[in-house]
Structures are given as C-alpha cells and as structure tokens.
Amino acid sequence: MPEILIQYEAEIWKAIIETFMMVGVSILAAVLIGLPVGTLLYLCRKGQMLENRLVFSTLNLLVNIIRSFPFLLLVVFLIPFTRLVIGTAIGTAAATVPLSIIAIAHYSRLVEQSLLDVPKGVMEAAISMGASVKEVVFKFLYVEARSGLVLGLTTSIISFISYSTIMGVVGGGGIGDFAIRYGYQQFKTDLMMYMIVIMVILVQLIQFTGTTVSRMIDKR
C-alpha cells in the first residue's frame, strides 16, 4: 500500500463510511418513496387505471422542478428545511436530506419510464381478470418491469454517489469531500487520484452487480 494511503488510512475509512451512509439513506428513500411516487405517476396518467389529471400534473411538476435544480443550489435552498428536520444543516446526517429528496425525484421518473415499457396487453389482461389496483401493481406491473426497475435503481445509485461528492459544502464528508480537502487543496495530487480510483472501482462494482441482477431476473 502506498505510504500516503497508510498515513491517511483512518480518514479514508471515515470518508468511505460517510459516503455509504449518505448513499444508503438515499437508496432507502428512493425505494420507499420514489417507487410509489413513480408508480402513482404511471397509474394517474391519461388512459390508466387511476387516471387523475390533478394528481399527475402535481407530482409531475414537483418531480420536474426538483430534477431541474442544479444540485449544489438545491442543497443550499434546502438548508432551512434540513435544519428543521435534522436540527442542524451541517454533517453527514444533514447531507442525507437533500440527497434523499433528489433520490426520490430521480428514481420516481425512472420507475415511471420502466412501467411505461410494460406491454399494454399485460394491463388489459390483468384488468379483464378482475385484478384490483394493488394486484395489478404487485403481480403484473412490477413483475414485468422488474429488470428495468433494477437497472433504474443501479443508475440512480451511481448518480447518488456523484451527488454525494458535493456534500462537502454542508460538511457532509465522504470520499469526494476528502479528495478535495486533503488532495486538491493541499496539492497532494497522488492522494486525490487514489480517491478517484476508489470511486471508479465502487461505481464499476455497483454497475456490474446491477446489470447482473437485472439480467438474471429478466425472463422476457
């Protein structure tokens, strides 16, 4: 192991743990809230089971607004809300708030797109058999779209890792923040490059895992 990595070993592990914490909470928010929001966007579209122009337009507008925000400005804009929810606007816990909000908006749109790829015949068959909305969603839509949902989540996770590097502005920590503070600002280019390599390896592992799982569950 290079000497400089040994010198900063404790700080590097702390940065990695902080990144995992931020990304982990974001993934949880994406699955628990983003998945239902994306599903509702699909179901409330014109011609779908729960067609509702008001609900669809409201959710669609909110998702579009959040996704159109430059992430750094979103972090700053949400500081009062973050302070209200967490009690502070600084630290790793505070960083999870804006990350979770962008995660929900990001994944909900990918969920909607995945469900739109499900053949209309599947919905028609489910409805003709008298399936309830819950049964249509869990026994037909999610089953048919499972491969796309996994790939969408994989893409989202990689985006969350990228967003987490910005969280240094609110003291969120993480690998990106470590690379800037200890590498770039202290002119230790080699240390910064090692952090970039770690990020690249992490992203490659996530992409490989997501693609593999998606391929395994795709029965089409």
Q: Largest sheet, if any? A: none
Shape designation = elongated
Question: What is the number of helical segments per DSSP (H or I, 4+ residues)?
Answer: 10
Overall pLDDT: 88
**Radius of gyration, rounded?**
20 Å
> How far is the first residue's CA from the last residue's CA?
46 Å
Question: In total, how many beta strands?
Answer: 0
- Structural class, please? mainly alpha
User: Strand share of the residues?
Assistant: under 5%
Q: Considering DSSP H and I runs of 4 or more, what fraction of the residues is helical?
A: over 70%
Uncertain segments are none
The helix/strand order is HHHHHHHHHH
Characteristics:
220 residues, mainly alpha, 80% helix, elongated
In short:
The protein has 220 residues and is an all-alpha fold. It contains ten helices and no strands. The protein starts with a helix and ends with a helix.
What does this structure look like?
The longest helix has 35 residues. The protein is mainly alpha-helical. The termini are far apart. It is 80% helix and 0% strand.
What order do the helices and strands come in, and which of them pair?
Blueprint: H1 3-7, H2 9-43, H3 53-68, H4 71-77, H5 79-86, H6 92-116, H7 120-128, H8 133-164, H9 175-184, H10 189-217
